[in-house]
Amino acid sequence: MGQPQERPWTNAQAAEAMLGTGEPFDQIIGAFKLLDAPGHLLRRAHQRSYELFTAHVGEEATRQQVALLLALAQRPGASQNELVADTGIDKSTLKEMLGRMVARGWVIRARDPKDSRAWTLGIAEAGRALLEQLLPRVAAAQVDILAPLTPEERPVFLACLRKVIGLDALPADEPGEASVDP
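The structure assignment produced for this chain is given below.
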């Protein structure tokens, strides 16, 4: 039996073939290129971003914690729903994070005077001091993340990422889209 015949398929076509069009499995496997798979590339970019963040910032705070502290510093008295919108952290994860960050003294949580069922949140002095200490290192990590791109490619790349996550209508300086995003 010979080698599978080369066919210039896109990954979408290869995946469609896997769904039952009758193409031989070996041909489908040969046509699917990981380095053309957006999900695979995003996972690898996420891994690289994590490595660079950790190299600059260390283990003192996670990227999500820094994002939350930054959002709280930019929006004092924010509600949990506003923080979900600003950070992209899902509601249940945010609730758990806030509990840990309140316990560490980084976040202040108080009942909303307008709605006793809701909480308002703010950055505590310890959280502000931590953010002040970490923000230059976070910014350096962002520079390193974008370093492989030319200065002209960087805003295009960021615009494409915003589009992929469904925020293409927001300029970078809107709430929820901080210029220095951990």
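Interim note for the steering committee: The chain has eight helices and two strands. Residues 125-146 form the longest helix (22 residues).
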